[in-house]
DNA sequence: AAAGCGGGGAG
DNA sequence: CTCCCAGCTTT
């Protein structure tokens, strides 16, 4: 099982974060540590591009400022605010989640979102990625996360033979993500954000813009700008 | 392991 | 036109 050497992992993360500090887009969900707001952004961003989520995010939060507001609303009202975004199961799951955390099992949750991947995974609509994202992006606790961006970047950089379609290879990518993750939650936050930003802006699905990549000297697939895969 | 779920944008 | 997108649930 291919895993980057610790020295390569540190260098990879260090360069990645340095690049992020200079090239990060300003996105509303990066300015908050409110777990609810992070959760809403992650749900909206599932299989949905940033540019389109931006059209809905602020308006949705204005209508539903916190989890209690979602729990207090009818499902149809949440769906109405979601209209146009697609994948409406996400809105139904958010409503179910809010009802459970705020109303049905407040003794379990204290009315707030949990802060560990295992607990978050219990909630409807929250899978492995979203659980890691809330844990790290909201609570700044150290947690690995793998979405399509991260999977692509890590695969091209460290394990080009893996095929993210296969479940077993996805497990390996999570292991690599864990192996390159910095120790502290704070550094892990920047690392994860940077990894996803690199996948969105530089190391994209159709085009690998290696000439602009901060980790090309480490990357296994570097300068195969049309290698894709 | 594979299908189903939305709708818009990039190439 | 085809593929892709800060995935998850169900079959």
Write a short abstract of this structure.
With 229 residues, this protein is mainly α. It has helices at 6-23, 35-45, 50-63, 67-72, 75-82, 89-104, 106-109, 117-120, 128-138, 148-158, 167-180, 185-201.
Describe the protein's architecture and organization:
This protein has two domains: 89 residues, Helix-hairpin-Helix base-excision DNA repair enzymes (C-terminal) (Endonuclease Iii, domain 2, Orthogonal Bundle); 105 residues, Endonuclease III, domain 1 (Orthogonal Bundle). Helices cover 59% and strands 0% of the residues. The radius of gyration is 18 Å and the shape is globular. The model has no long low-confidence stretch (mean pLDDT 95). It is mainly alpha-helical. The chain is built from twelve helices and no strands. The structure holds a DNA duplex (11 and 11 nucleotides).
CATH top level of the largest domain is Mainly Alpha
Largest sheet: none
Instruction: List how many beta strands DSSP finds.
Output: 0
- Residues in helices, as a percent range: 55-70%
Tally of structural domains = 2
Beta-strand portion reads under 5%
Q: Helix and strand succession?
A: HHHHHHHHHHHH
Question: What is the third-level CATH name, the topology of the largest domain?
Answer: Endonuclease III, domain 1
Number of alpha- plus pi-helical segments: 12
Rg result: 18 Å
- Please state the second-level CATH architecture of the largest domain: Orthogonal Bundle
**What's the rounded overall pLDDT mean?**
95
Protein structure class = mainly alpha
Measured between the Cα atoms of the first and last residue, the distance is 20 Å
The CATH homologous superfamily of the largest domain: Hypothetical protein, domain 2
